[in-house]
Amino acid sequence: MSEPRSLKAQAAAHHLLVGFALNVQQLRESEAYRRLVAEQSSIAVAENAMKWSSLRPTPDQYFFEDADFLLQFTETNRIKLRGHNLCWHEQLPKWFGPTATAANARSLLTEHIRTVAGRYAGRIHSWDVVNEAVEPKDGRPDGLRDSPWLKLIGESYLEVAFRTARQADPTALLTYNDYDIEGETEYDAAKRSAVLLLLRRLKQRNVPIDAVGIQSHISAGGQHRYGTSLQQFIRSCREMDLEVFVTEMDVDDRELPRDVLQRDAGVAQTYRSYLDTVLREQNVRAVLAWGVDDAHSWLQAKRPRNDGAPHRPLLFDEKLRPKPAFAAVIGSFAAARPLPAPSAGQALRGSKR
Ligand code: XIL
Fold it and tell me: What tens digit of pLDDT does each residue of 49-98 get?
């Protein structure tokens, strides 16, 4: 077998984009990290630098240094950048709770979107305009999450966010991003239905929305299954003319044995079978892992393993060496059916990205 090529070269042969969520501190401090990212990726996203909590130290101040630094790096290296995110119930600044009211929330949201999406207009591949707005457990008939934005503005906040984003950056693909839509569980089925219901409502009202982000924080081993339901979901998106991006992929290995060889094999196999399923669908255009190396994965703090061993959820180890999961992703790209080049319309909106 020939040596695996870079992720980006293998992905490009199938008109796919591939990359990682980037940590700005690592990007500033590590030459090896910068080299690896430049070699391997055609798309990137800020893990935290473009969230409200990073950009909004006070109600009337913006902090753009990290986001600007990231964009400068990606542009220098011809890597497209996703924006994450403009509207979410988490990682809001501390001042938000005491400051936001029913009277000012709408203008807080629209001013933020105009300022942030406007600053980077024409330079962003796609914006996660709204993140995680659906939560069936909250018990509303429409499936919407009982988020601060919903409480303060009402359900029109989604429409407002997308319309404002389109005005501020007419070339970015506007994306709805969510999790727990991947699996074969009853809960994931409810979540998929509620997300599709939301997307249909938005489309019916001519709200500008171009794509769906499937976060893809998945798990290896145990009862976890990913397959036909996910494929069906992606097809439903396609029927609405929506592109699909795998936006935050990682593989939680808590249910795999501690042994590193076995664990790496299980994680790699999970990447392979998940991507094989997803890449069968032609509207899937990009795959991003949620981080570059295992040592910096959010899962280390978020969901530690019971045996205390560090998680191994990503494509590179703590020394930035490629793991079996890296080869698995290349293998899946190589096996993916060659895709037609994007249509003229898509090329226009996607050109800058
Ligand atoms: C996570 C980051 O990885 C962490 O560093 C941060 O502390 C919390 O947020 N879904 C999302 C991402 O949309 O923004 C989250 O990122 C992971 C879950």
Answer: 999 999 999 999 999 999 999 999 999 999 999 999 999 999 999 999 99
Residue 353: inside a domain: no
Q: What is the CATH number of the domain that holds 187?
A: 3.20.20.80
Report how far residue 145's alpha carbon sits from residue 138's, in angstroms, rounded to the nearest whole number.
6
Q: For residue 31, indicate whether it is catalytic.
A: no
Number of domains in the chain: 1
Between helix 186-204 and helix 156-168 the angle, nearest 10°, is 60
Residue of 296, 299, 314 lying closest to 25 (CA atoms): 296
pLDDT-derived band at 353, boundaries 50, 70, 90: very low
Q: Which residue has the tokens 């239905």?
A: 193
Listed in order, strand segments (DSSP E) in 118-208 are: 126-131, 173-178
Q: Which has the closest alpha carbon to 47: 28, 67, 63, 30?
A: 67
Q: Is residue 78 part of a domain?
A: yes
In the block, residue with structure tokens 């991507």: 275
Q: Which run of H or of E encompasses 96?
A: helix 96-99
From 248, 252, 294, give the residue whose CB has the most ligand 1 atoms within 8 Å, as the site to mutate: 248
Render pLDDT for 317-345 as a digit per residue (tens, 0 to 9): 999 999 999 999 999 999 986 656 665 55
How far does the centroid of ligand 1 lie from the alpha carbon of residue 240, in Å? 28
CB 16 within 8 A of CB 52: no
* Burial label, 307 (beta-carbon count in 10 A; 0-12, 13-18, 19+): exposed
Q: Tell whether 17 is covered by a domain.
A: yes
Q: What is the residue range of 241's domain? A: 7-348
CA distance 247 to 287: 6
**Burial grade of 351 (CB within 10 A; 0-12, 13-18, 19 or more):** exposed
Distance 339 CA to ligand 1 centre (A): 31
In a domain, 2, yes or no: no
